[in-house]
Amino acid sequence: MASSAAVPFWRAAGMTYITYSNICANLVRNCLKEPFKEEALSREKVHFSISKWADGKPEKPILRSDTPGV
Amino acid sequence: MLRQASRLLSRSVTAASSKSVTARAFSTELPSTVDSTFVESWKKVAPNMDPPQTPSSFMKPRPSTASSIPTKLTVNFVLPYASELSGKEVDMVIIPATTGQMGVLPGHVPTIAELKPGIMSVHEGTDIKKYFVSSGFAFLHANSVADIIAVEAVPLENIDASQVQKGLADFTQKLASASTDLEKAEAQIGVEVHSAMNAALSG
To answer: Which residues in chain B have Cβ-Cβ distances shorter than 8 Å to A32?
Structure first.
């Protein structure tokens, strides 16, 4: 029962729907007039810290932040 | 005490599932979800414990489908950061589905539509409100409620035409020079989104 439906080009290239949707949203935000553009780009800011674990202990965390000075 | 409970539970569950697997009712038509034989077996085994709740008992019942088609469409248009329209009664909505511009009137067939970058217009009397939607989904329910969700939706006045032209030229050039599949896909997405914005501004 293999599906023979045509897949969208982005799926065929290995991209997921969420990635596709976020790229589309980003492109639209980049084409806005000021001041809407600034508000919109602030929505894309992320701030998180990742640490891999080895032997039951967390290693050094990696901080990814778009807000400067934090 | 509880060892017996699982035997009694599986007995009543298999009895119910064997007949329900062939004829499934729609969720809007199901009667009350309490299974009396199960509750009785439970009370025999564990009289001091309440019978377990099922997920259905926590759900609000779905609004039933009206027998006659309603005159207005109820639209809920939401974005991740704001609720643009909430329970608004309108005459028609035109959504940019991947299969083309789809007009939604009250009484539309229940549909789930994936949206492509394009214009969504909400028609209320002579009022037409247009948004450019980046992508999303539209859920059209049997009771003439339309739930439209988009990641980014902007009124057309907020789009800068010169940046759209520049982006279109950029991505067309990237598409020509792309090497890997992923680069080609990203450039293709860029071209599609910018062409849609261009068409939206000029059309």
So the answer is: 154, 158-160
